[in-house]
Design a protein that fits this description.
single chain; alpha+beta; Beta-galactosidase, Chain A, domain 5; Glycosyltransferase; eight-stranded antiparallel beta sheet; 29 strands
Length: 669
């Protein structure tokens, strides 16, 4: 996103009640891509790259498409209000239908590696042309960009990154559009795009990332873009690649190419097959070259209202990996290569002390900007998130027993205090420090999973640690509320040693942690009673019935990204996590023949329904946004990978246990 686009958005939304000005939202439209370049296709057909975190290349910063008569008399720009959009089957081929004064135009968008193809078909005999306005930002640059025109293709470059644009049947005309000047940036109203600027004889039009091209639309027309670097491709090879991508495309060929990306094929016999297909597609979209995933598309690249989302957090990524493994074992989806790739990159990025850093770039797993890297700095501050190491350890223990487990156990031990709970550190939401119930839960699950590996030198040591943490959790119990505390205030806080009585959706992690412990230790009935009380009370306390939506807020008194709402917003992560925790407890209770099974299974299904397709928190494109305002306006990263993985895991778990014929009391109606 270029600064001019951010300023335009700021001018447009600075007084809006629910939209944060200066962002590039993805709450409408659809994405295309798999394990690499990520391209957003808005409902009006405009495309934009969100690829940098995944492939290290910036690509298309903005675009706009339209049609005009062959005589060039006026452009009809495609409009989201007169468009329909959907995915083709379970693929990432985006199909957008445009109603125009010149008839119906169908647009097909598919990302294949570092290539993106946009193909147009018409349902009219009128001679018309496609008008394609595309702006590139090689190396993320707004200026010092140049163009080279190669007849039927254009090269836009800065230093390392090079973007190529080509079309079939070829551009009738194509020209660069020069920078509009500081006056346009400072103007109080948003600038129009594309700018109506004539070509310049002094070369300014060639010193810009913006292009406008005219492509005759006969039976069909295709515009293709290709991202590369000077080191990766020669000019000749790159030009041939982008020209080949634009040649001989039609809906059938794009459908075949899109189907080859789908892995695995989702049978209609699976429960909520539409949601499963959407979840797997989203997790592929968010995956980079290394297999690491971004938390979500980076909608706030200037960090105006957040700390960024286009990075890989080891917590988020490992939790997604663990959920995928659970689902694969239930539904036999054939994801072994993905599990192995995740385990491999976690081993590669593990620090010498057995921990993992705050966040890394998905395209090469190198350290990314962050604020919780104490293990790389002094080694004695609270700026570290112990739950990240716990999440990775829990996945590695289940997925890939290997010689790094002892070092992983060392990393967990380094964060454990003498009383058996993790030391003061940052929380999962990255906005507090203390000694958190969520962190202790993650560590308990990691130790329990390591104890179950039966690896020499690991099992006994991890079992002892799991028992220690299990016992120490009693220190966090608040009898009068029937819940576990959000945290114990840590060292340096004016209330150090006291318990924070607020309900926090992150403490739903207690459920899966105790399920893991139940496999290697004695889960007492009194502890199970506390778990049931905790989950039920937290769900009740965090449930918000709003005018347009319902679901769970993140935690009590959460003030982040409220805009004018003035109170906590609903989070899909919190809602899906509540559903998953309910499903896990259903499993534990059903195995004991507990009469509370029915009620918890029903609660889990009710929460799951809120995030399923057709539910109030699931958008029409199948995506789960991170947050939602009371009026139904989606906000923040969309789609958010963690929510989709939680939804996927909950579907599988309820299918395996809550509706299992072995427990007819919990059967689905």
């Amino acid at each position: 996103m270029r600064i001019s686009d951010a300023l335009n958005d700021y001018k447009r939304y600075r007084g809006d009640a629910t939209r944060f000005p200066g962002e590039r939202r993805t709450t409408t439209g659809r994405f295309s891509g798999r394990d690499g370049r990520l391209v957003h296709v808005e409902r009006d057909g405009s495309i934009r790259d969100f690829s940098y975190p995944l492939v290290g290349l910036t690509g298309v910063a903005r675009s706009r498409f339209g049609v005009r008569p062959i005589d060039g008399d006026g452009v009809t720009w495609f409009d989201s209000e007169r468009a329909t959009q959907q995915y083709h089957a379970t693929t990432a081929l985006v199909v957008t239908g445009h109603e125009t004064v010149h008839g119906h135009i169908t647009q097909y968008d598919l990302t294949l590696g570092d290539v993106h193809v946009t193909h147009f078909e018409r349902e009219t005999d009128e001679p018309i042309e496609i008008v394609a306005s595309v702006g590139f930002a090689p190396d993320g640059r707004n200026a010092r960009v140049g163009q080279l025109h190669h007849g039927d293709a254009v090269e836009v470059y800065h230093a390392e990154e090079v973007s190529y644009l080509a079309s079939t049947p070829g551009f009738e005309t194509i020209r660069g559009v020069p920078f509009g000047g500081f006056e346009d940036l400072l103007e109080g109203t948003p600038d129009t795009y594309p700018r109506d600027a004539p070509g310049s004889s002094s070369g300014e039009d060639l010193l810009s990332g913006d292009l406008v091209g005219i492509v005759p639309l006969g039976g069909g027309a295709t515009v293709a873009t290709f991202l590369t670097t000077r080191a990766d491709r020669s000019r000749e090879t790159a030009l041939e690649t982008v020209r080949a991508a634009a040649r001989d495309q039609d809906p059938a060929s794009l459908q075949r190419a899109a189907q080859r990306q789908v892995d695995p094929a989702i049978g209609t016999d699976l429960p909520h097959a539409d949601a499963i297909a959407s979840d797997l597609r989203v997790l592929s979209l968010l995956s980079g070259r290394t297999g690491l995933r971004v938390a979500g598309p980076d909608f706030d690249p200037y960090y105006a209202h957040s700390g960024g989302y286009g990075y890989s957090w080891f917590r988020d990524d490992a939790e997604i990996s663990r959920f995928l493994l659970e689902v694969d074992r239930r539904f036999d989806l054939g994801l072994d290569d993905r599990h192995a790739r995740s385990a491999g990159i976690y081993r590669e990025t593990q620090l010498d002390d057995g921990t993992w850093p705050h966040r890394v770039w998905p395209f090469d797993a190198t350290l990314a900007p962050g604020w919780a890297n104490d293990r790389l700095e002094t080694g004695n501050s609270v700026e570290y998130q112990a739950d990240q190491t716990g999440s990775v350890a829990a996945f590695l223990a289940v997925a890939d027993g290997n010689d790094s487990l002892e070092r992983t156990l060392d990393g967990l031990d380094a964060s454990l205090a003498a009383d058996g709970r993790p030391v003061t550190c940052q929380n999962v939401w990255e906005n507090m420090t203390g000694r958190f119930t969520h962190t202790a839960s993650t560590v308990l699950e990691a130790y329990s999973a390591l104890a179950a590996t039966n690896v020499d030198g690991i099992t006994t040591r991890a079992t002892n640690r799991a028992e220690t943490v299990y016992t120490a959790l009693d220190d966090l119990w608040i009898e009068e509320r029937g819940i576990y505390a959000l945290r114990e205030y840590g060292e340096g806080h004016e209330r150090a040693g006291e318990l924070d009585h607020r309900c926090d959706s992150a403490t739903f992690a207690l459920a899966s942690a105790h399920r893991a412990y139940d496999r290697i230790g004695d889960l007492e009935e009194c502890r199970l009673d506390r778990l049931v009380s905790h989950v039920e009370t937290v769900i009740e306390a965090l449930t918000r019935e709003a005018t347009a939506v319902s679901g769970l807020v993140r935690y009590e008194e959460d003030s982040w990204r409220q805009r004018e709402q003035g109170h906590e917003k609903i989070w899909t992560v919190a809602t899906a996590w509540g559903a998953y925790a309910g499903a896990v407890l259903t499993e534990l209770l059903a195995d004991r023949g507990d009469k509370r099974t029915d009620e918890l299974a029903a609660t889990a299904r009710e929460l799951l329904a809120l995030v399923l397709p057709g539910g109030p928190l699931c958008l029409d494109n199948g995506y789960l946004p991170e947050q939602v305002f009371d009026d139904g306006t989606p906000d923040s990263a969309t789609p958010i990978g963690w929510s989709h993985a939680l939804r996927l895991a909950t579907i599988a778990l309820l299918d395996e246990h809550a509706w299992d014929e072995r427990h007819p009391v919990a059967a689905e109606d």
